[in-house]
Design brief:
Strand 5 (122-126), helix 6 and strand 6 form a beta-alpha-beta unit. A seven-stranded mixed sheet has the order 4-10-9-8-7-5-6, sandwiched between helices. Strands 1-2-3-12 form a four-stranded mixed sheet. The protein has a three-stranded antiparallel sheet with strand order 11-14-13. It is 43% helix and 16% strand. It contains 16 helices and 14 strands. It has helices at residues 2-13, 53-66, 74-78, 81-94, 105-116, 131-139, 152-162, 184-194, 216-219, 248-257, 259-262, 269-284, 287-305, 325-337, 367-383, 394-401, and strands at 23-24, 30-33, 36-40, 98-102, 122-126, 143-147, 166-172, 197-201, 228-232, 242-246, 317-323, 340-341, 344-345, 355-360.
Length: 416
């Protein structure tokens, strides 16, 4: 126990200690945080569907019809008609022959990478990929080559060094901490040249980008060239769970070999039905996607007026890179005192020296609320002794924090 207390104390001294906060009510634009009303600016409920009446009603009806839980894994007794219905709807939405539900995005990424990357092969992973991708690479029996963020030239070098052993290149579409988008068209072209599959995690792209909210893959025009699309039901679709959109053969391979699919209880019927309702709303109201994108632009404009550096982000995610972890936490707390909840993100979630406030807008935010948030954040930063103009672009902060990328081909540099 002494060792545990010492580790906790070390985290506190480094400004890396975390605690859970209590939110009362649904994930709307405004919530009650630890008993205090605040504007919520760090939720992934991008389209505002988590508390939409139709989504709530669908989930409640499903609980009455199918119960709260699924009872077992999909291969034992857990697959229900509502699961198959959502899979068919997701395949249609993503324009793929098949879709397969998983319990979470974390499980989906671990299952896909483990199934597609075999011993002796090489997986190519962007250095800023989500932790679920990183862990999927680590648990797979293949080697992992980590290429510099969105650096297609470095990826090309890695593929050449792999000498035909390349199995899979995997990348987030929208990077959850930076708000930028992967160069998908260039990645696909390179992968085709080397005969390597492409898997794209659209967790923060589905419902947020592209025609009809189909994601960054659709926006880049490479839907027919990406082998696997992973997506979550828990962000823009406001529910819980995940899916893999792919061809029929790969779907069957995952059913038979993906351990997170085989050994996990099926997603609960209320969450599945809620996601179905959210997909229907997205189809009926595509302007929600346009409103989300407009809100992202509006927040960047308002933050720029306050002197913040916001270059790099092009989506609904806007990072304010502070640098020091304790300073970022101080600004976060001062903003909460003033009525705005913008979470501080610190290592290991982001690289050392790039601690930040990670802002996430929703389609349900108003322009006035975003203006208010920018002003509050500006005042909180000044009160903490940090001038907004001291910020640096995300790319520059990332480059300053990164070590040398030179070294043996088979070294894994991904740390988060």
């Amino acid at each position: 126990m002494t060792e545990i207390h010492e580790r906790l104390q070390e985290l506190k001294e480094l400004g890396l200690y975390r605690r859970m906060r209590m939110i009362s009510g649904p994930q709307g634009p405004r919530v009650v945080l630890d008993g205090k009303p605040v504007l919520l600016l760090c939720s992934n409920n991008y389209l505002g569907l988590a508390d939409h009446p139709r989504v709530r009603e669908a989930a409640a009806d499903a609980a009455m019809r199918w119960g709260v839980g699924s009872g077992a894994s999909r291969l034992v007794s857990g697959t229900m008609t509502v699961h198959r219905r959502l899979e068919e709807r997701l395949a249609d939405f993503k324009r793929t022959p098949a879709a397969l539900l998983f319990g979470s995005g974390y499980l989906a990424n671990m299952g896909v990478i483990g199934a597609l990357a075999r011993e002796g092969e090489v997986v190519f992973s962007d250095e800023l990929n989500h932790a679920s991708i990183i862990d999927g690479c680590r648990l797979a029996r293949a080697q992992t080559f980590v290429y510099r963020h969105a650096d297609v030239e470095h990826l090309a070098w890695g593929m050449r060094q792999a000498e035909g052993r390349g199995s899979l290149v995997v990348t987030d579409s929208v990077f959850s901490m930076d708000g930028d988008v992967a160069p998908l068209a260039e990645i696909v072209e390179l992968a085709n040249h080397h005969g390597v599959r492409v898997a794209v995690d659209e967790a923060h792209g589905t419902g947020c980008l592209g025609p009809g909210g189909r994601g960054a893959v659709a926006e880049a025009g490479v839907e027919d060239e990406v082998d696997v699309v992973i997506g979550t039901l828990s962000k823009a679709l406001g529910a819980y769970g995940a899916f893999v959109a792919c061809d029929q053969s790969l779907a069957q391979l995952l059913v038979n070999t993906a351990r997170p699919f085989i050994f996990s209880t099926a997603p609960p019927p209320p969450a599945v039905a809620g996601a179905l309702a959210a997909l229907e709303l997205l189809a009926e109201q595509p302007r929600r996607v346009e409103k989300l994108q407009a809100n992202g632009d509006a927040l960047r404009d308002e933050l720029a007026r306050e002197g913040f550096e916001v270059a790099g982000s092009t989506t609904q995610i806007v990072p304010l890179v502070i640098g020091d972890a304790e300073q970022a936490m101080r600004i976060c707390e001062l903003a909460i005192e003033r009525g705005v909840f913008a979470q501080a993100i610190r290592p290991p979630t982001v690289p050392e020296g790039t601690s930040r406030l990670r802002l996430a807008v929703m389609a349900s935010h108003s322009r006035a609320e975003l203006r208010e948030a920018a002003q509050v954040l500006g005042r909180a930063a000044l009160q903490a002794g940090w001038r907004p103009g001291e910020g640096v672009p995300v790319a520059a902060a990332r480059e300053a924090a990164a070590g040398s990328s030179d070294g043996p081909f088979d070294i894994e540099r991904q740390a988060a």
